[in-house]
Amino acid sequence: MERRFRNKITWFTFCFSVLVIWVHSLNAELFLGPGAELERVKAIQQFFGDSVAQIAVPGFFMISAYLFYRNFSMDKLMVKWGMRIRSILIPYVLWNLIYYLGYVIGSRLPFISKVMGKGKIPFGILAVIDAVVHYSYLYVFWYVYQLILLIALAPVIYFLLQRAFAGAAVIAVLYLLAQGGIIIPQLNLDALLYYCAGAYGALHLKNWVEGEQNGRKTEIGLIIMVAALVLANLPWPGGTFAQVTPRLLVPIALWLIADPNWFSEPFNFMKENFFLYAVHFAIVRLINKTAAAVFPGNWLAASLLYFLMPVLVVAFSCGAGKALRRYCPGIWRLLVGGRYVNG
């Protein structure tokens, strides 16, 4: 049972990683100037990148929360925090430093600087602090930043969610606030909603999440999926209802529908999702900008590259990870937070 659960987690996180790559692979405007071709290619890419793929990060938040609060009690808090310092906080700092130094060096090399298009990046202690604290050069790490804040709030979240009825009311309130587009300092309200949904599942719905597949679970998953799609396409006034609803409900529906027996033992490269998440942004940007310079105005090149991008990025990530594990195992452990060291 435990192995099947872990396999399902890995398959889901890998699929979410592929979707995240598509989110950041939009390239129509890089390749094409204004016109009908741009609008056609852009519309197709936005359907996948700005609609379908947007369930990925909420899915990540829910899985991260579920694993944190699985079998949780307050006496385990310090152990959980200690593990997350190693697996999330230290890699967060290191990756932000790597990206910052990469931009500093790249901005001083003629060809790379032209591809980057950011001018000369300043080098100094204040710039380093800004890069680390505000993920200034690794924009996709907004997710990791939010995750760190949410983990730090663990005692508060547990207090609010530990009772089933009160916890459900808290999630309903968060849902309404997120739907209204309410903004609070630093913490992303949508992220808090998705994270609390995952935590609630771990605290009160473990059998639904990890139990044997049955017809009732599948039926409820299908009902949730249909409801999410219907609600997402209704003309709700104001707020972000059409965004929050499917992003919350579709990952839940997919999890309930998917039978654990469908998922075989994952390949090793599918387990390296944190490394893939960290490197994909730079690789996507480099490939897209280089290809756009080589094939300007080519809508076919833009389209093919967009759909092939996950394959290219996963292949690079797999090769780079293998090299780091072999030649720099200590650095690899730090960069991935101790994950899949022997993969």
Please supply descriptive tags for the structure shown above.
single chain; mainly alpha; 17 helices
Biggest pleated-sheet summary: none
- What gyration radius follows from the Cα positions, in whole Å? 21 Å
Mean pLDDT: 90
Overall shape = globular
Number of contiguous helices: 17
The CA-CA distance between the termini, in Å, is 22 Å
Q: What are the low-pLDDT stretches, counting only 5+ consecutive residues below 50?
A: none
N-to-C order of helices and strands = HHHHHHHHHHHHHHHHH
Helix content: over 70%
Assembly type of the shown chains? single chain
Q: Provide the number of structural domains.
A: 1
Describe what you observe in this structure.
This protein has 343 residues and is mostly helical. It has one domain. Helices cover 73% and strands 0% of the residues. The protein is built from 17 helices and no strands. Helix 1 packs parallel to helix 15. The longest helix is centred in the N-terminal third of the chain and has 30 residues. The relative contact order is 0.15.
Task: Give the gist of this structure.
The chain has 343 residues and is mainly alpha-helical.
Question: Which secondary structure elements does this structure contain, and how are they paired or packed?
Answer:
Elements lengths: L1 H22 L4 H4 L4 H16 L4 H14 L7 H30 L3 H7 L8 H9 L8 H11 L1 H8 L2 H16 L9 H16 L1 H5 L4 H18 L8 H17 L15 H22 L4 H29 L1 H7 L8
Helix pairs in contact: 1-3, 1-4, 1-15, 1-16, 3-16, 4-11, 4-14, 5-7, 5-8, 10-11, 13-14, 15-16, 16-17
